[in-house]
Structure formats: C-alpha cells, structure tokens
Amino acid sequence: MAPPKTGLWHAYRLRWKRRRFLFRIWRKRNELTVSLDRTTKISSDAILAFATVRNEIVRLPHFLDYYRELGINHFLFVDNGSDDGTAAFLAQQSDVSLWTTTDSYRLSRFGMDWLGWLQWQYGNRHWCLTVDADELLTYPDAENRDLHALTTWLDDQGEASFGALMLDLYPKGSLGSATYQPGDDPTASLNWFDADNYRDQVHPYYHNLWIQGGVRERVFFADEPARAPTLNKTPLVRWSWRYAYVSSTHQILPTRLHDVFDLKGDSKVSGALLHTKFLPIVAAKSAEELTRGQHFQNTALYQDYHRRLTKNPDFWHEGSCRYEGPAQLVELGLMSKGRWV
Amino acid sequence: MSLGVIMLVHTGFDRAEQMVRHWAHAGCPVVVHVDSNVPVATYDAFSQSLADLVNVRFSARHRCEWGTWGLVAASQEAATLLLEDFPEVQHAFLASGTCLPLRPIAELQRYLDAHPDTDFIESATTADVPWTVGGLDRERFTLQFPFAWKKHRRLFDLFVKLQQALGYRRNIPDGIVPHMGSQWWCLTRQTLDAILRDPHRPTYDAYFRKVWIPDESYYQTLTRLHARIVESRSLTLAKFDYQGKPHIFFDDHAELLQRSKSFVARKIWHDAHLLYQTFPLPDDPLRADEEPNSGAVDRVFSQAVERRTLGRPGLYMQSRYPSSDRQTSIAAAPYAVLQGLDDVFPDFSAWLTRQTGAQVHGHLFAKDRAHFADESEVYRGGLSDNARLRDYNGKMFLTNLIWNGRDQHHCFQFGPADTQDIRWTLAKDTNASIWVVSGAWSIPLYDSGRSASEVRTEAARLQRIEDKFLRVLRSPDARARIKIMTLAQFIEAPMDVLQTIIDDIAGHRGNALKEVPKMPDLTGLPDFLQDLKNQGMHPFLTGDITVGNTQQTIPAVRRKPYVISGQ
User: Fold this and answer.
1) Would you put residue A338 in left (φ > 0), alpha (ψ -120 to 50) or beta?
2) Class for domain A8-332, per CATH?
3) With the C-alpha atoms ordered B442, B443, B446, B447, is the resulting torsion angle positive or negative?
4) CB of A232 within 8 Å of any CB in chain B?
5) pTM of the model
6) Which of A340, B164, B357, B510 could hold B502 in an S-S bridge, CB 3.0 to 4.6 Å?
7) Per its UniProt record, what Pfam families does this chain match (chain A) (predicted)?
C-alpha cells in the first residue's frame, strides 16, 4: 500500500476538492423538486436526518419510529422515483420534508449531491445524521441515552463528528426465509452478524480509517478483497455549509471530521450502523438493481454480487453471533464507549 | 433553615427552575445568578417563573465564560446578597443549575448542623497535587493568560511557551498560598463574610482576575486565610475525565449515584428523567447519618475509563487504531509461532493440542488457505480461510484471530513455504513467542524420496526465504520472544526444547512429557544433505548434521524434585 499522502500540497488539493464538490452540489440543485417543505418547523437545537430513498415503503415505518425514539427532530428525504407509495407515506408524516427527483442516483454520487444541497441549506450548525433507509444507528447505552445526550456530550468534548461501523445483519437460513412485516423491528428477523472479520487500514488519500470485511466480503468478495464494501462511516456531523461528503458517508471533507479514531492507543466513542439490507425483499431489490445499474462504480463486479443475492444465499455459520444489543457490541470491540462513561 | 444556596445558571432553565424550587421548598433561601450572555427575554421568563417564591433572589449578572473571572465575580455578587438578605444563613452552598440533590436537603442540613464551624471546600496546594490538565498547575498563578483557552488554543499555548522561555513570573500577593480544588463548595457564613470583607480584597481580586480558571482557586486559596476548620472535600459529587471535562450523569447512573451517598451531584443530563424522578431520595432514618462515600463511584469510573480507553490492547476498530510505532504489543494476547517443528514431527499439531489444550492451528499463512485448528472454512468471528482475504491485510487477520479468541492460547505453524508478509508483524509483537528450527524444511524434501538434484531449486528457495525471516528475527527492532536453533541442535536434544515450549504455552499447567511425538527415521538425512552440497547448494541453516546425531533420542525421564527431610 502506498504511504499516506501528507503535507501542505495535499491539504491544498483536498481543499480544492471540497470546493469542487460544493460547486457540484450547487450545480445539481435543480434536479430536486420540493414536494413538501416543513423545514420552518426546525428549531435551532433540532437534530436532522437526511436520506435518499427509493421504494422503501417496507422499511420506512420502522425507520421513522426508530429514529424518532432516538431523538431525530426532523427528517429530510429525497425520493428518487419510488413507485410503491413511499412518497405518499412520507407526505403523511408531520416531521418530514420531502424532495423528489427522477435523475440518476449514480450521477448524483449515490445521492450525496442531492443531500449535500439540503444539508447546505438546512444543516448548518445542526447535528446532521446522514443514513440510508436500511441503516439503523446505535451506540453505547443507546437504550438510556438519546442522540441529544450524545451530541451534547460531543459538543462538550469539542468533537464535531461521530463514527460508526456498518454491521451487516443477516438471518439464520437463506435470506428469503426470514419473515418481515412493515413496522417490525428488522433486528428481530435479521439477528446474526459476523463479530470479528473487519480489517482496518488508514486510507492513503483521505486518511480516514478504512474498514473492510464482514459478511459481504466473506461471501461475495473473497477473491477481490480490495473491492469489498467499505464499512467505516461518519454518519453524524455537526454540519457547516462548508462541509461535503465524498463517497457515501465513508469520507468527508474537511478530513478532520472523519478522524473519528485514535492513533495513540485510546479509543474514542463510536457506534454501529445496523445494516438491514438483507431483509427478504433483498432478492427482488437486487433483481431491480441488475437492470438499473445505479449502484457503485465498478458495476460489473457488483452485478455478480446482485445476481447471487437474487438466489437467496445463506450467510449463517457456526461462529455467527446473535445480536443482543449495544452492550454486546461494546463488549465485542465493534464499538466503544471511549470516555463517554 | 440555616443553609443558603447560590445557584449559577446559564442554560437548561426548566431544570434550573425545578432545582430552585426544590431548594426553596426545603426552606433554603436561594440566590440565583444568570449568565449575562442569556437573552433578556429568557431571563425575564425565568425570573417570572420563580416570582412566587419569597426566599429566592436574583443577583446582578456577570458574563460567565469557562475559566474566566466572571464566574468568581458572579458568586461574589450572589454571596454578598445571600449574606445580606438572609441573616439566618449559616452555611452557603454553591451549586449550578445542573446540580441535583441526591439525598433529602434536611439530611444535608443536619450534617451541616453537626459541623457548624467547618468549611467544606476542596483545597490543595499546587505543589502537592498534579491533577490539573495541560500541566498548568503552579504556572496558572504565575503567568498571564490574555487568550481564551477554548477559542484560541494555539495562541494560548504559544503565549504560555513564550513566557516560560523568557522566565516571566507574576508576583503572588503577600500572605496567600495558592490552593486549588473543585469549584463547588459549601462555606460557613463567617469564612465567606471574611473573604468578602477582607481589607485586601481589591488586591486579591486584581490578582485572581488574571489567574487561569480562578473559580478553581479563588475561594480555595482565600479560605485558608480565614477558616477555622477546613474539610478539604466537596459535598458535591462531580467527576472529571482525564482531560478535566466533567462527566455527565445519565439515567443508567442511578444506582451508582445512590451508592455514592453524596448530598449533591453534577452534572446531570438535562433529559435524565429517571434521575430527576428518583432524586432526591425520600427520607430514610437509616441512612440519615451516613457519611458521603464517593469512593465506590471513583473506583467504578476510573475502572471503566481505564478499561474502555487503555485496557483493550490488540483491538483495532472504528475508533481505535493504534499505530504500530507507538506500541510494543500488537495482538491482544500471547501466542506462539512454531517454525519447523511440524516438519520434524508430522503429527506435531495434534500432539501439542493434547499436551497443552491450546488452540493449535496448522499453517495459518499457507499459500493455499488458512489452516485453522479445526480446519474449518470460517473460523470464530467469521474469519475466512481464504488466502487472498487473509493476505490483503495479514496483520489484521492475525489481530482479529487473537482478539476474538483471546480466552485461549493460540499457536500456529509457520514456514518458508508460507506467505511471508506477516514476518515483521510477528517479529515486532511482544506477545509473540517464536520458535524456529532452522533448516527443518529439508526433512519433507528428504522424505519425498526425490533425489537431491530434483529438489535442489526448491531447497535453495526455502533456505533463502527462511534466511530472510531469521534476519528479521535477529534485527534490533524485533521485540518478540525468539528462540532460534538449527535442525542439528534441535535433534541433539529435542525433548528439552519441547518441554520448554510446552511450559511456555501451558504455563504452570505444563506437565512432564508423557508422550513423545513420533520422529521419522532420519538415518539417510546426512547423505541427502551432502548430496545437496555436492549439487552446489549448501544447506547452511540445518547446522552440521552427521550420521551420529540423527538417531531417535530417547526422552530423559523428568524426575520429580524431592527434598531430603532433615533429621
């Protein structure tokens, strides 16, 4: 692996990169059409959630309940051409503002340009959570402490961002065999995960901690580990209009925001994004992805991945861990309390 | 009631109101100071909401920024008002809006009545107590601090360094000895009055105005001039992390707070509804006379902090990635790397498992796949046996394996035929014990029945690779426990070496060898090696193997130590 790029010149280049992203976000602003603007309801201490969705009517009921409970005050959604009633469902929610677009998800850097424009307008000075509909954020003591407790503490510590590991949850048995009804807690049917096959390295260009591994790599990407899904994320950020996510929420500029790890042997506080991709609907979704080709740069590789997902594989093995809650993830070393005692 | 409260409030007004009411209903007069940064409308609403209470006053407002004089000025202002307006007050208690009484206020009152002349204020000389953050203890009294620490950290640090370099020192006013401690105190009327009416107060105020974080030292220092009895501890339970930032108490701390038996705790999280419901606890005559005991809380917090921040070596995750040049141990637990032994003894792994009960893996870094102890495709934690996955980041493969199985001792076989990228990691890890029988790769070659000329290239390759590994192990940077012996040395006395390995792995549980692994017949080996030499390939790593020392050695019986009892 190449040594990390450092120095003033690199910093300067990253600065311009960030400006280019912001310009791109601004240039693509017209792709969004406002459908429901309730942003006047946002109070100054509100925590906001941003998400791009497409045909997520199955997940959204629980998604909204979960994050409301966690302390999200307002949701800002971009609906990318759903045809299953997602938009109508979201419109009924009093704490949701909704934009729609039918433009290309891929060309919008997988939704980051659209969300970037919303964050630029509404996110400034707020704690902003940027997630997908299949990601549920959890963190140490999440049962007792809501996001306001976490963000207040982060403010106190002078931290402006919070890192989380993507944790793929899967059922025991083939993916199609699990049962799920809209509104259910997905961690009830997807309650297994891989505990200890995550590889960390420092990203040579952006200097974030680059984590790969997990069940998707084990099953699908063993022959091309370099291409395996990236699992580190920085989903929660005290936003400024100067910030821009790079690729999903894996990297963010300025880079100090994804410095959510400690190099000295301590550990900072961190959480996990429970990834509920593998609900029974995944086969149908993957079949659709195969025809749309809107996911990820190296589409050929991912085509094979989606093709295999349509066949309802079984991820479970003897050493799989059953999900029990945040305390378990802390104990396993997948997330950490840091100094947040 | 003879207890009066000074409450400093700057945010969380609903909770502050609740707390003011709480103190006031218990009969304590309260003087509230509201930060002058708070907008007038908020202030008015807050003071209106408390207008119905007769024993509550609002003092003139000062700007209270962390670490500045404003906090002291605010408490001076409020204390003066408290002493003037409420002549019955005998003890003044400094609290904030996020302080929550844990025990009934009557119990606190009774406690203070029992100690009428005692000032409860944490107050230690800077010479003796190195608990401050940033190393500024004595110097906070002798340097100038024109820049705000929170907003202009770099300027702050730079200016401190400049003064240190120039040897600048402020003069400390005559008669005072700098003391520091928690800013939450409970002073007697007499002491507080003496501090506020001290004829030298203008001098002291002018001095402390420029001290860094004066609210941690103003009263702490001046109390020493006037107090009759100083009890150097705070009645308020406040925990600070090692950066000097206050811990916040959440609902899940309820039991801990209860155990502390403290009268008051801070900081309480604004939305910790359970805490605000639970505390203060109802009257309990059994507990009424108990002393506060924050020892348990201290222990729990420091243990938790230690475990969570420092106590997880060998873990690499989202928020912990110690760089390798900052640490000596890489993996989470000790493990053994065994090179060459399985070449000498074909069933070595099985034998070692029987002898030690450890997790004995095969060649974890073999070119074809990782040979886990159970030969499974997916090992504990979801670790795959796929060689590409493993080699993509061999170090993390190893640390994952050890972290997830740190309840057991792991051993694995290694050899020159394996992927070698891991060798520096092994050599640098103080948790690794590496045992090498060099040149042992010659045995399988000999066993294969092929002639020396056929295996010559292969032998040369293995020797070259092993030699590189040995050079790594012998480098000054190697920190593992390393034992290297040649094949010749090993077969001279294999049982001694095996016994040492077993003692090392199994610790005191290691027994005398009951069973000896089977060594193949090596009588033809010297000739084979000589043939290699004749081909021009000198197997120098095997050591000098002659016909005489290839005989199967019979294990020496390990005698039990015995004592001759005297007389």
Assistant:
1) left
2) alpha beta
3) negative
4) yes
5) 0.85
6) B510
7) Glyco_tranf_2_4
- What are the domain boundaries of chain B? 333-550
CATH architecture of B333-550: 3-Layer(aba) Sandwich (3.40)
Q: Of B40, B30, B36, which Cα lies nearest the Cα of B81?
A: B30
Distance CA A97, CA A25 (A): 19
For residues B73 and B82, give the distance between their C-alpha atoms in angstroms, rounded to a whole number.
14
Q: Does A226 touch chain B (CB under 8 A)?
A: yes
DSSP code of A122? I
Tell me the pLDDT tens digit for each residue of B446-502.
988 888 888 899 999 999 999 999 999 999 989 999 999 999 999 888 888 888 888
How far apart, in whole angstroms, are the C-alpha atoms of residue B244 and residue B132? 7
**Is residue B138 a contact partner of residue B125, using CB atoms and an 8 Å limit?**
no
What's the one-letter identity of residue A87?
A
> How do the domains of chain A map onto residue ranges?
8-332
Which helix H or strand E contains B272, and what residues bound it?
none
CA-CA distance, A195 to B400, in Å (whole number)? 10
Please report residues of B whose CB lies closer than 8 A to that of A200.
316-317, 321, 396
Q: Which of B42, B317, B425 to mutate to test the interface with A (most CBs of A within 10 A)?
A: B317
Q: What angle do CA A70, A73, A74 make, to 5 degrees?
A: 125
> Which pair of tokens denotes residue B156?
């702050």
Contact B308 A211 (CB under 8 A): no
The helix or strand, by DSSP H or E, that contains position A201, with its residue range, turns out to be: strand A198-202
